[in-house]
């Protein structure tokens, strides 16, 4: 074929490919235009992830390492490539569910191009085009194109990566047949190895399960290259794999620990909860095989296979001259080799996916493009008029089935046809009135226009759940967050006292825990909440929005005039007397400019009136106390402790708990913030009269100044009666939990369980920032305190600020030298940061004090393993098993 004719044919094929893509795109967008549904659990959660990255990319700081750390932490469990690409799409077309789904058009283009390329490379361009056409009409594909899930993007990128690997593999086969090899061929082979590495990295940035589909073909070509001693090819493959690490490595390095822990919950725990078949049963290994007819449709599965079998049968019976037989034999051998290559991919993907205990038919979507290539190969075996009619008849009927399954236009006959030829694929758009999610969010914002709110969502149905309420709150400038609470009976009372908004629903509640009924009763009948608004739903149930009668924070716009430069504390209200060790109510009333209030942290110290204020001598501590090195003089650290620490307590927090929210436009003028809180005098606090001193700290600029405090006193008496108080603020709860870490293993699990609970109340985890900044300030400028240092370390660990956590734990060690757990905490953070040698050194005091503690030996074994010291790792981990067995 001449070069001109080849170009014309290529352009024609690309035009046909574009028409195939356009056909699917038009159908998809018509469906979205008709659909008024609300995204369900996973879909809404993923859509929220795209908004998180969209917001982050509004002000990128490409050369700031801390910004990149926060960027990768925006999605700690799920790789973020789909989120990032969708964020870019929404930056162009605007935010919203319909705008976000435009990204599926991009992934469709990638999928169709990759399938076309795969079919062309392995068989012919005709096979590639028909495979692309089949992708548009496969039930599994056209349904998942219409839901914002990760499986369709994963399918597109996995297919692209497999296409690059297939091209590279075929080039190697061609090179082996020609000696010497041409320089251009070597360069081309290297190019496709690089392309494979990049696309593999991208696939692993879409979802970790990409490895299920690509691992087997990678091992196949790698082992074959080693067996045939084609070391150049082997090095190219290794180079591509190393390049993929550069693409996905940063996110995995940042989040590897959560990936491991969440992976168990997402597979083993979920499989047990959902009653999945165990791996030692036949059902577990045939599950996806039974799903294949539904994913592909009976029509598209049987016709190509029957055609292919007929072709092979005729091929074996047909008599031809020797020359024709040789040509067809070569083509046949090439086809068989390509079919084997597809089989390697499919069988490996099927087995590894079946090995995953948690099963869903969408989890194996990435192996279906390979199935379409095989089916297209079967459809194109006959070039006769009858063969063409079979192809066009099959694809036309499949397209009709797609339209009947997506749009309610077929009536009774259409329903019968789809159930016979394409069962379980019906997916009509929801064309009734929209559910009131946006109205719920609007009601909350209208009631509290200056605050960021957390909504406790008690039902959990596909239409009403914490994820989709959270998503619609994120669409409103992230002013409302939805969270599911009331799932543990022992926390119901704390949940009810910690949130100010709750959403309940009559009728169907979804898969909720038994404690949810208790939570609903607490909200609707306990008397602490009042009905804000209700909505009638299409299923005749009622959605009810409740608001706390006495809000924790009230914000008032008091004046349009320009406020004073500093904030003012105009009133403090406390009981006259209170016992130690129990929460007591306190009300603070602040006023000032919006920026000063929103960015403000207040360091509040209640101290014995007989003691001088701490602010009289605000001098920085030595560098060792700022986390910049180890002190050579322990006596310096202990100076100032003792009795003084028993004559004060702190009540640091962000003004309005850090929940001031500007809405769409920053407010101007003077504002008043009233906080109705609780604080906790220590149980060992000395009796006496206590008064307040206050420091303002700006979290953005770092500036600080003293705040004039109105006259207020509080008598601490052991015999005083306790006063009913609200729930402790989250900063105080965190600092109380941090002090428990001195107890070691017995306290750690309880601490993190409590952290998981209070994280629900502050979805932004801003309380961690408040605690970290105020504790850093105190430890640098005031008395060194062991409990403060532990709390600071905990705040840094929970924010995964590795450098800050290491610095804080080194300070903990200085203040608590005799505690072996302090060294183990430091070693754990160093292991998380891939510093095994430093971790091994940090563990030495722990092992010296208690060599048989399982946690210490386990950390030591992991440190040795990460350093490649397998002998020591084996000894430590074997000793760990022995210790555990001796305790049984």
Describe this structure in words.
This protein is α+β, with helices and mostly antiparallel strands. It has three domains: 3-400, no CATH class; 437-548, D-Maltodextrin-Binding Protein, domain 2; 553-817, no CATH class. 58% of the residues lie in helices and 11% in strands. The protein is built from 33 helices and 16 strands. Strands 8, 10, 11, 12, 14, 15 and 16 form a seven-stranded mixed β-sheet that branches. Helix 28 (786-798) runs antiparallel to helix 29 (802-815), helix 30 runs parallel beside helix 32 and helix 31 (836-849) runs antiparallel to helix 32 (854-866). The radius of gyration is 32 Å and the shape is globular. Residues 619-642 have low confidence and may be disordered.
> What is the terminal separation in angstroms?
77 Å
What radius of gyration results from the CA coordinates?
A: 32 Å
Sheet/helix structural class: alpha+beta
Q: Give the integer mean of the pLDDT values.
A: 89
How much of the sequence lies in strands comes to: 5-15%
Stretches where pLDDT is under 50 for at least 5 consecutive residues are: 619-642
Name the shape in a single word: globular
> Helical percent range?
55-70%
Count of alpha/pi helices: 33
How many DSSP E strands?
16
Largest sheet: 7 strands, mixed
In total, the number of domains comes to 3
């Amino acid at each position: 074929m001449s070069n001109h004719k080849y170009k014309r044919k290529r352009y024609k094929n690309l035009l046909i490919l574009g028409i195939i893509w356009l056909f699917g795109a038009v159908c998809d967008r018509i469906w979205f235009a008709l659909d008024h549904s609300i995204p369900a659990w996973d879909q809404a959660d993923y859509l929220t992830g795209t908004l998180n990255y969209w917001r982050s990319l509004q002000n990128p700081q490409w050369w700031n390492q801390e910004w990149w750390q926060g960027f990768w932490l925006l999605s700690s469990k799920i790789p973020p490539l789909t989120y990032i690409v969708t964020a870019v799409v929404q930056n162009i077309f605007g935010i919203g569910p319909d705008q976000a789904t435009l990204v599926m058009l991009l992934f469709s283009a990638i999928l169709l191009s990759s399938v076309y390329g795969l079919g062309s490379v392995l068989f012919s361009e005709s096979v590639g085009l028909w495979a692309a056409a089949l992708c548009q009409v496969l039930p599994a594909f056209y349904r998942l194109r219409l839901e914002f899930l990760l499986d369709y993007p994963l399918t597109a990128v996995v297919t692209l990566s497999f296409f690059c690997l297939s091209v590279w593999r075929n080039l190697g086969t061609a090179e082996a047949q020609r000696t010497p090899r041409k320089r251009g061929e070597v360069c081309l082979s290297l190019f496709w190895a690089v392309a494979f590495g990049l696309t593999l990295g991208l696939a692993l940035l879409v979802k970790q399960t990409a490895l299920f589909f690509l691992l087997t073909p990678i091992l196949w070509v790698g082992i074959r290259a080693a067996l045939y001693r084609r070391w150049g090819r082997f090095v190219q493959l290794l180079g591509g794999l190393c390049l993929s690490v550069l693409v996905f490595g940063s996110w995995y390095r940042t989040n590897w620990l959560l990936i491991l822990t969440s992976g168990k919950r997402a597979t083993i725990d979920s499989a047990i909860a959902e009653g999945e078949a165990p791996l030692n049963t036949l059902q577990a290994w045939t599950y996806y095989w039974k799903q294949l007819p539904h994913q592909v449709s009976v029509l598209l599965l049987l016709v190509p296979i029957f055609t292919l079998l007929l072709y092979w049968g005729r091929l074996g019976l047909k008599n031809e001259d020797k020359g024709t037989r040789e040509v067809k034999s070569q083509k046949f051998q090439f086809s068989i080799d390509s079919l084997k290559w597809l089989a390697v991919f499919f069988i490996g993907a099927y087995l590894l996916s079946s090995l995953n205990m948690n099963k869903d038919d969408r989890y194996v979507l990435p192996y279906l493009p390979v199935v379409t290539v095989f089916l297209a190969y079967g459809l194109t075996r006959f070039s006769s008029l009858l063969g063409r009619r079979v192809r066009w008849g099959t694809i036309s009927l499949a397209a009709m089935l797609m339209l009947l399954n997506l749009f309610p236009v077929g009536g009774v006959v259409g329903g019968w046809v789809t159930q016979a030829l394409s069962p379980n694929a019906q997916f009509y758009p929801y064309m009734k009135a929209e559910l009131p999610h946006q109205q719920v969010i609007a009601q909350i914002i209208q009631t509290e226009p200056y605050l960021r709110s957390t909504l406790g969502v008690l039902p959990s149905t596909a239409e009403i759940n914490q994820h989709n309420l959270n998503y619609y709150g994120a669409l409103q400038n992230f002013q409302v967050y939805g969270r599911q609470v009331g799932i543990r009976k022992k926390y119901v009372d704390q949940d009810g006292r910690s949130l100010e908004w709750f959403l309940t629903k009559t009728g169907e509640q979804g898969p909720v825990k038994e404690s949810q009924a208790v939570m609903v009763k607490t909200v609707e009948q306990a008397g602490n909440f009042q009905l804000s608004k209700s909505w009638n739903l299409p299923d005749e149930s009622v959605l009810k929005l409740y608001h706390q009668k006495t809000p924790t924070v009230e914000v008032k716009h008091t004046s349009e005039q320009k406020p004073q430069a500093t904030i003012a504390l105009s009133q403090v209200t406390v009981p006259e007397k209170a016992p130690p060790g129990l929460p007591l109510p306190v009300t603070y009333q602040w006023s000032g400019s919006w920026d000063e209030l929103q960015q403000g942290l207040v360091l509040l110290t209640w101290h014995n009136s007989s003691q001088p204020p701490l602010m009289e001598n605000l001098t920085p501590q030595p560098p060792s106390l700022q986390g910049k090195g180890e002190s050579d003089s322990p006596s310096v650290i202990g100076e100032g402790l003792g009795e003084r620490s028993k004559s004060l307590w702190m009540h640091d927090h962000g003004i309005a708990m850090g929940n001031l929210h500007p809405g769409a436009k920053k407010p101007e003028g003077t504002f008043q913030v009233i906080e109705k809180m609780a604080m906790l005098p220590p149980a060992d606090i000395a009796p006496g009269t206590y008064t307040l001193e206050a420091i303002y700290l700006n979290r953005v600029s770092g500036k600080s100044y003293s705040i004039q405090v109105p006259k207020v006193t509080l008598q601490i008496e052991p015999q005083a009666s306790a006063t009913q108080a609200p729930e402790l603020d989250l900063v105080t709860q965190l600092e109380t939990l941090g002090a428990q870490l001195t107890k070691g293993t017995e306290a750690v699990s309880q601490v993190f369980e409590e952290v998981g609970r209070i994280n629900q109340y502050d979805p932004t985890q801003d309380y961690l920032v408040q605690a970290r900044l105020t504790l850093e300030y105190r430890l640098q400028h005031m008395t060194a305190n062991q409990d403060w240092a532990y709390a600071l370390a905990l705040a840094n660990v929970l924010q995964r600020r590795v450098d800050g956590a290491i610095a804080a734990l080194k300070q903990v060690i200085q203040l608590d030298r005799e505690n072996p757990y302090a060294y183990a905490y430091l070693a754990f953070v160093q292991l998380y940061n891939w510093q095994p040698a430093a971790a091994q050194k940090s563990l030495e005091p722990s092992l010296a004090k208690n060599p048989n503690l399982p946690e210490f030996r386990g950390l030591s074994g992991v440190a040795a393993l990460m350093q490649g010291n397998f002998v020591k790792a084996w000894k430590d981990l074997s000793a760990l098993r022995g210790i555990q067995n001796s305790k049984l």
